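Recap quiz, item 2
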Amino acid sequence: MLLEGRDVTVAFGAFRAVDGASVGVREGEVLGLIGPNGAGKSTFFNCLTGDLTPTQGSVHFAGQDVTRLPPEDRAALGIARSFQVPLTFEGMSVLDNVMIGAFLRTAHTGEARERAGAVIERVGLAPFAHASARSLGTPGRKRLEIARALATEPKVLLLDEAMAGLTPTEVRQAIALVRAIHQSGITLVIVEHIMEVIVTLAERVVVFNQGREIANGTPAEVTSEPQVIEAYLGKRAARAMRRGA
Amino acid sequence: MTATLLQVIAGGLLLGALYALFASGLTLIWGMMNVVNFAHGDFVMLAMYTSFVVWKTLGLGPAASVPIAALVLATVGIVAYFALVRHVMRAPMIAQILATFGLALFLRYGVFWYFGANFLSLPDNLVGGTYDIWGIRLPAARLLAGAVALLVTAGLHLLLTRTMLGSRMLAVAEDEAAAQLMGIRPHRMQAVAWGLAAGAAGIAGALISTFFYISPTVGETLAIVAFVTVSLGGFGSVPGALVAGLLIGVIESLSAYWIGAVYKDIVTYSLFVAVLWLRPQGLMGKA
Amino acid sequence: MGLLRRFLWPAIWLLVLLAFPLVWDTPFQQRLGTLVLLYAIAASAWNIVGGYAGQVSVGHVVFFGCGAYGALATYTHLGLPPIAGLPLGVAASVAIAAVVGVPTLRLSGHYFSMATIAVAELVRLVVANTEFLGAAVGLSGPTVPRSVLDLSFTSSLPYYYLFLAVLAGTLALTWRMENSRMGYYLRAIKDSERAARSLGAAASRYKMRAYLLSAALTAVAGSMYAIMIGFIDPESGLGILISVKILIMAALGGTGTLFGPLVGAAILVPLEEISNNVFGGGGAGLTFVVYGAVIMLLARFQPGGLLELLGRLRARAAGRGARRAA
């Protein structure tokens, strides 16, 4: 396992948002995390990135216990993420946003600018490099967050609903981008609501419900389990699933 | 324990009740809107001058000055909210801090300019007499101030936890957008919070003025005392402010008694630094 | 054209600053210019933590006081030139900044602001009760210069150029920081601390660095002040109003901009001197009423300061011009 949470529990008072979940991603894999709203997948995700510290359990990255490491130290090890609601640096240009990521691997401003430029080219934001981040729409911001994360040269990239709020065309473009990122050798963890995305991208899916993992397998395996369909998918999504498979 | 020591502690508790009262206002606004009111000490100062004017022009004591100061300050608080605070709440933090800090300067030096820098005080016999309780001699002014402060603080706590108005305010504090969907007007609730907080400071100021000197800069010291109280009690918590206020009152009285009056503020401020290092979440806060 | 613009205006401004005390050469004007530069140093130093790092210190006078007391205590107790005490003042400032910053810069910015004002008052009270530091009476510098190292001059002119050099150094340092990784990180942290940390920017460490640098430079300003005035007491060296002046100058000109604090100082120092001359002692209160009002208005309508406003107006004018041309 490259990045792994073991027996992770996150309790807010008496409420357990995540209850003893053990989930890991292997090197080179694309792991999907799904589940209904409030199932604990985002909370678990934030334990992997260091935004939350688990109440119990531990998080390991490449054999190292990172449970107590803050997000900035995890970024240095090679863990990068995007946010569900984009947190782009609004007062900065697109290029400057990406430079913040590039500065993790170089202290030199000119070099950071060069590397950021290359990443911007790669994700297709080059025409907007000097526009302010504020001027981008939702798809642009989500793309910018991915660019910023890529600039940190991560080993594993965690995407938190990177496709939410996009039109079908934009989703297709985003899927192509994520595929390309995976092909470049980066391990991926994606939290997603849109089933089509999970089905097309993920090699393995973990389903969360009420803070616990209730299924773990290929998209086809997972979606055929009756309890998953009951707990989360519902009829409409289940149909979409069959179409996808 | 000697009678003197008991008397010092009793005096500290009475003073602490006042600290608790005006710190409750600070903690209420902080907890509800995540804004620190740097003018809070100057609200107390303004109330002390109000009380002085009430005595000077009408010849009346705390029975009149406490409600008048409460009304005047509640008005000041609501006006400050609508004219200033409301507009900076979504702005960067620097704008919030500048806004209330500017208000503090404006009030402090407005009073300085109008009344002058001289210390004023109310006549000693306004609330005259001394009570003797089990050998502890307590001036009536302090006894009255402490008792009223305790009652008002308790009332504020009940208002926040037991009434419809209180639950509406808490709803706004929890989630402004959700509260709005439930038909609560956040601005109105926040204005009420400013009115209550400033009104509490008004009552505290009118009470303090019966036994303490009045000067334009007294608010600065009081603001820092309120910061210490709130950080010790945990932000947003009125019961926390009560316990912390009483504790600080006793610590101040004891340090004034043991090491000397000039050092009591040094002890209080050092306590603040110690709290930040050791328990930044406050005594009552969760670890 | 580009090259001309890039070098012409800075050259003109530099010339103005160099020639100012020679053209406006009455003692009053020279002294005014000197004070503008002194406050510009302090406000620029404040700007590093308050503007660039977005952590609003309302007790910066404590560092000013460290520098001032460091200089005059060294003279009083060791008989050395006051300037020799500068490193002492800087060291004390850095130590105090660490005491305030380490616990608070991890928390919400409100804690930091409250702690800065409380610690500034704490230090003022301690100094006012410490005989070694002159207690309430204060400390004095050399009345008659023993050598040029005492930096004691009757004319303001030497101080003017000394302060100009220090200001240039401060701004050069700020400019370098602005364009380095630290400057980028600070802007990112101010915008979204969570996102910046996820990209590897150690937020509290960078805020701390900015605070330490700011504290050290403010101490330099304090030493400069003490050397020029030759006297320091708890009010003039550690009074809250100096914190207010430093803060309002930076905020008026524009926080987080290189020249904002200088612009703010160039506006407010003359205003205050004039109001003191016109109203006498009674004007002091009024000055700070106006300061309070200015701070509130800035926060309400123009938190970015005057330079930002100017930039916006210029952009609008340029936009109009372009439309008319088209």
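The longest strand of chain B covers residues 130-133.
Chain B touches chain C through 47 residues (CB under 8 Å).
End of item.
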